[in-house]
């Protein structure tokens, strides 16, 4: 499978909505799905639904069916077939192998508690996680082999310093940027600093990719030209653009929309028990009412 996803000239514009099937959709998801579908209509492109179930321990088949049902009830249609990440592990492995061949990935056996104990307590990434203190960067081949032989699992982290050197050479020392489109369709260029993520995990211990690697591979594979998602994911764009340049993947336009916020001022989330679309339907809400609520409540 070529990571570039074929000719964009032949495939045209495309947006995508990419939920994880580890719970029911809520109003925040509805806003993202509607935003992606409307953007596709505005640019004359395809609307793609992708199931991001790379975390097979948390994903459930019944939630996949529920996603289809809720979106159809809202009046949305999407391109078939629907890509499921769990069916494409070899593609993520191939992308990780390319990064390893460049020398920008290294094994990390450290647990969260070990990282926390070694952390300086001051430096955090945009998600609020401790910046990795470099515990296993430069570990000898013999020590790596010993740990593997006794069954220790490892993640693969990006060596940010080496990755930036390669990216800067590819860009002829120009700054790393992304093209942003606001909710009115106006374009701008945004500079970014992927080093704020530190040596981020690119391949998880349990699965053949992190979210960051899988999403850039899938966007390229599916010819996504306009990545539409919530503002909470805007900081991740720096890491995604870094990976796109390293892997010679196309650069999409990024469109980050406002979030649906709860009464406590925090974004709606499954983990915090946000009321689901299914619950709203059961209470008698119409599709029109749910669409209005997703567009207008808690912005």
Write up what this structure looks like.
The structure is a single chain. The chain has helices at 8-11, 27-43, 61-73, 89-102, 112-118, 141-149, 160-170, 211-221, 236-246, 277-282, 287-296; strands at 14-17, 46-51, 83-84, 105-108, 155-158, 177-181, 187-191, 201-203, 226-230, 253-257. The strands form three sheets. Strands 7-6-10-9 form a four-stranded mixed β-sheet. The longest helix is centred in the first third of the chain and has 17 residues, at 27-43. The chain has two domains: 13-86 and 260-299, HUPs (Rossmann fold, 3-Layer(aba) Sandwich); 88-214, Glutamyl-tRNA Synthetase, domain 3. Helix 2 (27-43) crosses helix 11 (287-296) and helix 8 (211-221) packs across helix 9 (236-246). It has 299 residues and is an alpha/beta fold.
Topology:
Elements: H1 8-11, E1 14-17, H2 27-43, E2 46-51, H3 61-73, E3 83-84, H4 89-102, E4 105-108, H5 112-118, H6 141-149, E5 155-158, H7 160-170, E6 177-181, E7 187-191, E8 201-203, H8 211-221, E9 226-230, H9 236-246, E10 253-257, H10 277-282, H11 287-296
Parallel strand pairs: 1-2, 2-3, 6-10, 9-10
Antiparallel strand pairs: 4-5, 5-8, 6-7
Helix pairs in contact: 2-11, 8-9
């Amino acid at each position: 499978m070529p990571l570039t996803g074929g000719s964009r000239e032949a495939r045209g514009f495309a947006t995508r909505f990419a939920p994880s099937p580890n719970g029911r959709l809520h109003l925040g998801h509805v806003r993202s799905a509607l935003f992606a579908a409307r953007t596709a209509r505005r640019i004359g492109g395809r609307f793609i639904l992708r199931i991001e179930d790379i975390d097979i321990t948390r994903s459930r088949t019944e939630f996949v069916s529920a996603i289809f049902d809720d979106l159809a009830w809202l009046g949305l249609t999407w391109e078939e077939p629907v890509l499921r990440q769990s069916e494409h592990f070899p593609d993520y492995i191939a992308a990780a192998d390319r990064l390893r061949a460049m020398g920008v990935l290294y094994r990390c056996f450290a647990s969260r508690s070990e990282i926390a104990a070694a952390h300086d307590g001051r430096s955090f990434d945009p998600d609020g996680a401790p910046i990795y203190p470099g515990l296993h960067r430069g570990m000898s081949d013999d020590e790596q082999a010993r740990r593997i032989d006794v069954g220790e699992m490892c993640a693969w982290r990006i060596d940010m310093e080496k990755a930036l050197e390669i990216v800067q050479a590819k860009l002829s020392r120009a700054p790393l940027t992304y093209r942003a489109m606001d909710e009115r369709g106006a374009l701008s260029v945004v500079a970014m600093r992927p080093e704020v993520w530190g040596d981020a995990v690119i391949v998880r211990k349990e699965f053949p990719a992190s979210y960051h690697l899988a999403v850039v591979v899938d966007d390229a594979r599916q010819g996504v030209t306009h990545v539409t998602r919530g503002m909470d994911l805007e900081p991740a764009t720096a890491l995604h653009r870094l990976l796109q340049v390293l892997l010679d993947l196309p650069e999409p336009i990024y469109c980050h929309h406002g979030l649906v916020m709860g009464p406590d001022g925090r974004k709606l989330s499954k983990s915090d028990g946000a009321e689901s679309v299914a619950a709203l339907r059961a209470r008698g809400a119409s599709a029109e009412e749910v669409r209005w609520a997703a567009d207008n409540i808690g912005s």
